[in-house]
Design a protein that fits this description.
A alpha/beta, B mainly alpha, C mainly alpha, A: 9 strands, C: 6% strand, globular
Chain lengths: 396, 225, 419
Amino acid sequence: MPDSGARNGNPVREETIYEYLQREGVSRRQFIKYCGMVAGAMGLWAAPVLNGSARLLGKPDLTEEVIRALETKPRLPVIWLDIQGCGGCTEAFAGSQSPTLVDLMLDRISIDFHQMLFAAAGSQAETALREATRTYAGKYVLVVEGSIPTGGEGAYCAVAGRSAVDVVREAAAGAAVIIATGSCSAFGGIARATPDPTEARSVREIVTDKPVVNIPGCPAIPEVTTGTIARYIVFGTLPELDDLGRPKTFYGTTIHDSCLRRPFHDAGKFARSFDDEGARGGWCLYELGCRGPTTYNACATLKWGGGLSFPIQSGHPCIGCSQPDFWDDGGLYQAQSVPLDRPALTTVGMAAGVGALVGAAVAAAGRGRRKRVHEARAESTPEAESTPEPERTGRG
Amino acid sequence: MDWHDFLRFVRGPLFEVSLLVFVAGLAYRLLRVVTLGWTRDRIPPAGSRVVGVVRSYAKGTIVWPFIPWVKDTFRGNAVTYLAGGLFHLGLFAVVLLSTTHVLVWKSLLGFAWPTLPAPIVDLLAAGAIVAMVALLINRFSHPVVRKLTGPAEVLSWLSVFLPMVTGYMTTHQIFFSYQVLFSVHMLAVDVMLIWIPFSPIPHFVFYFFSRTIHGVEFGKRAVSP
Amino acid sequence: MSSPEAVKTFHQGTGGWVASQLEACARCGICAEACPFYRVTRKPEFAPVWKIELLRRAYRQEFTLAGRLRTALGLQKKLEDEDLAEWSRIVYEGCSVCNRCAMACPMGIQIGPLIQEVRAGLAAAGAVPEEVASAVRKQIQKGSPLDVTDKLFDERLEWISDEWGVDLPIDEQGADTLVVFSSIELMKFPQNVVDTARILDAAGERWTLSRKGREAINWGIYEGNTEHTKLFLNRVLDAAKELGVKRILVAECGNGYDALRWTAPNLVHMPAGLEVTHIATVVAEYVRSGRIELRAGAADGNGVITFHDACKIQRRGGCIEEPRQILKILAPRSFREMSPNKEAATCCGAGGGVGAIKAADEHRYAVFELKLNQIREIEADTVVMACANCRVQFLDGVAHFNSDLKVRGLSRMIAEALV
């Protein structure tokens, strides 16, 4: 694996990304193309095709900014921690186009400290982590995948007697940027679903003194993670985040907003089951529980497998996996309009009973009053013929 | 609390509470009247009470609402009749015959029924909203209705108008995001459910008493109700 | 006039029947346009829904938790402190209890009977117009609001009998039918008595009049006082019981028919098997069964004839087709319906006691003009009716508006056509 001069402790000027690429045999032309792709991955309006029009409209040419950045900035060290997770986010990452881009921009030495992809094990791994955090203090990107179990005083995930809670906190202390990739690290994920036996928590709940960028999704769309990192490289700043800590560039719109089946939704054409006429016709999956309208992510536009497809396109309703606590938001196949909590029939019966009793009691009080008036009057007019209550005067 | 948590709250625990208050409240209103005592009617009928009741419901529910202009009371009450009718039509279409709401009924009752096409429901919903605005204006401008309008009537109007308008906005994602609109719609629905038992709105339950009494009183006299 | 007694009466009369209808009101105000008193005055307080507002408030105050709480917390004035003068005016001068409002109400609420409940409360508080109180006093003391005592009754009948040469049996045992006239007929339209006698005789009916049960009118109903209503009803019913008749035949009196046929059974004990019927129904039955024969077209050739539906006989009494069946025979070429008609007809303006209240004259004439215009619309020359009170109003109104319209009673037309 290529060596970074800084590793040896030499105060050598760090190799820029462009220089690294040149060393790897990437031509200038290819480099420009990559920069365009990076700009695109950042979710910014800088696709090569539209470059020319950007200048015409007086907008800053973002591809040029990317080029300038990659020409002058070194690759970023990355520490990738996988805590209480399934590794799905890594799998998606590894299987996507992104590693190519990431390879280009990130120091692969450090990405070796990826607990899943790691070749080393045991104390060697521990040492590598400690060394990396010390060596690149203040410069590295910390990526956390998986939730952090806080139950049992953090014992549910511990290595060599050290709780993952402490590992994450220590790694976060020296990080330049902290990214929680995947719904587990962003919000707690599946481990947090009721009854949450391990008291699984998000990175933000563990690391409270530094900004954490949430890249939720189950798994997170790999291009979103890369795009966010790429943005940090180019601009040196974190993207604008929404109230749940998600980059607005990717999480600013809902699946519903860009869904290819939207015309069917608007026309009221819904699939009722998974193999009916509507399903086969590609109709809207609202009735089958699609959470597209309330789920913020880039699935409908970026899609998966390098733009191949996404759940709805393949016929499955969106399960809202980039939203907090989506596992506890009702059944996955329950339509959005259905209330999440419904009282049991016995509870409803009891409520009706209580209401009925109070109603009867109020009526009884009224009847009592009626009777008292009737009796008082019957007393004072003894010749009055007894009339059944309630007295009828002209009714009928 | 962010919008997602808020949405879960108004769709979840708050809805459950609202529904229970609604059920308890309506049971209260109903029993408060029904247990007040009923005397036997000893007047010998000249005609069939049952026929009177059937005609009363048929005329009141199926005939007149659709051709109100043939009645002499239409004059001076055109807004009440037309907007009132349009409002009820839209309300029933949206609440009982739209896919979104039939899914709710199915979850509550265990069974469903056919729905109207979404564009038609949409049109009727828009009509209902316009009708409600007209009805509010009428409440303050009609010389008789003005006397009958108090805080309870205005609040009742508001409690029904807000769910309608937010529901429409949610469907069309007007001005705000779906999440925000859906949350506000559910909140408005929850507030409406809680308000109903304490308002004049249960007239829709007592309708069945008054219409039946009407049918009986006229049928027994052999007069067409 | 303050209202503790009124409130007590409202509470006493509120059961499921009243409460469910008060709760059904959607405050739509449509009933106003159906009320002739509202239509001709455009006074919002004459809207039927407003006429029952007192009853509604009494219900809320006593029979609802919210009402009780509001009163207890002092957030609401107690109804007992309400001044009844204005309410009395609205309910007695601006309403004939014709129940047209019930037909217009989208909820079908029986507003007329509910207004009657309001009158009951006002009566208990003594908040009734002087003319009404006076008529009631007269009926209590003399047996009739028009001063027709026993003695006067006998004298009058004797005179009629002599003058027209008809037999008028009084208190005859063994009769099947007890005929009850209103004192209006006796004193103002004596021809009615003659005609009725002739019709019944032609049909071979075994009928009688009664001294005790001589008055069909029931001012207790106009007043709204149950005890008085029962008192006046029992005079007729006791007579019927003593005479052992099978049925009571009410002549041309709407209020009387309403009282005996449609109110009595729920207030007093009815003699077993006793029927109550109206002259128009009886005649139609005679014709159908062939007991009498009427000369077809007897009334034709005198211009257009129309029929006025009396509120208490037609809409509230059900006797709608019978007069028309008769008129079809009597004037097949001359009969024309006015509009609205039958159960939808508008009140003559003098029902419910309104005719006796001087302060209501303005409204009474205005409502009558509404009716007159309906008749002018169809260019009718004659209007026929089966209620003597309506006839008094029509005659007065026709004179007031300088109209040529001829006003006739149904019995007269039938008697004229007897074969």
